[in-house]
Amino acid sequence: MPEVLTPEQIAFYREEGYLVLERRIPAPVMDSIRAEIARFTEMARGMTASDDRLDLEDSHTPDAPRVRRVKLPHTQSRPIDELMRSDLILAPVRDLIGSNLRLQTTKLNMKSAGFGAAVEWHQDWGFYPYTNDDVLAVGVMIDDFTPANGPLMVFPGTHRGRAYDHHHDGRFVGAMDLAASGLDMKDAVPLMGPAGSISIHHARIVHGSALNRSTQDRRVIFYEMMAADAFPVHGGRGKWEGLEEFDARMLCGTSTLEPRVVPCPMRIAYPDPPSQGSIYEVQKGLGKRSFEVLQ
Q: What is the Cα–Cα distance from 162 to 183, expressed in whole angstroms?
């Protein structure tokens, strides 16, 4: 029996590739997360370049810190780690992909008011294909997500389709030329909700988000995870540092040495992109952008 989702919600996710659960996270938990975000922003004061903890906005200065991403925030923050391991996050995921779950990665995207960077259209699957596609991302909405502040947008049903080309001039750039891919922006659906809501999106669904030019922050924690019997495909960029480290990322249930192999379309995420670093840097190699950038 499902733990928290209705049969209708599960069927919707299967068909459309996404789900929004409003006000899933209690206010005291959200307050603790916001306190951590303030701490991360203060950490960036005085920094002149991104490092292995913080990815800085192009408009960042040491005196006016602007963070666009906190890398692996669960390793830097106890509240973020505790939330990830709680049933607030794991229960709906178990309802969708089973009781044995493993972490792929985490990130805290800080799309701040007035300058938060856009993320071009892509499939997470373009970065890290696995032996099966029970792979998804849970997004925790730190702020109210509205049409004006650059919410995550998805193309419903694309998780059941092909693996789109994320290359430009023969190199992987982690983004799609939307028109060349046969998709029209008007068909995209924004995933919106009040602060404390969560979104869930399939790793194969096409998604992206625009620049935040509003006066309201739009910050989100992404917990990316997969079924324990999904193993990274060689040639992808899924994390693999050996079996011991792989099993250390188990979130609940039991690990296995028997990968479940399901036919799924995929493309190899190589040759390396011209720009290295976070997705923001990698996507700078895209020839034709769908979203404007801050000048």
A: 12
Residue 137 domain boundaries: 7-285
Q: Is residue 292 part of a domain?
A: no
Handedness of CA 201, 203, 204, 209 (dihedral sign): positive
Whether residue 290 is contained in a domain is answered as no
Q: In total, how many domains does the chain have?
A: 1
Q: How many residues does the chain have?
A: 295
- What is d(CA 58, CA 15) in angstroms, rounded to the nearest whole number? 38
What is d(CA 14, CA 107) in angstroms, rounded to the nearest whole number? Answer: 25
Q: Could you tell me how many helices (H) and strands (E) the chain has, helices first? A: 6, 14
Tell me if 74 sits within 8 A of 84, measured CB to CB.
yes
Q: Does some domain include residue 178?
A: yes
Q: How many CB atoms lie within 10 A of CB 40?
A: 19
Q: Domain with 275 in it: what CATH number? A: 2.60.120.620
Residue 41 Rama label (left phi>0; alpha psi -120 to 50; beta): alpha
pLDDT tens digit sequence for 161-215: 999 999 999 999 999 999 999 999 999 999 999 999 999 999 999 999 998 989 9
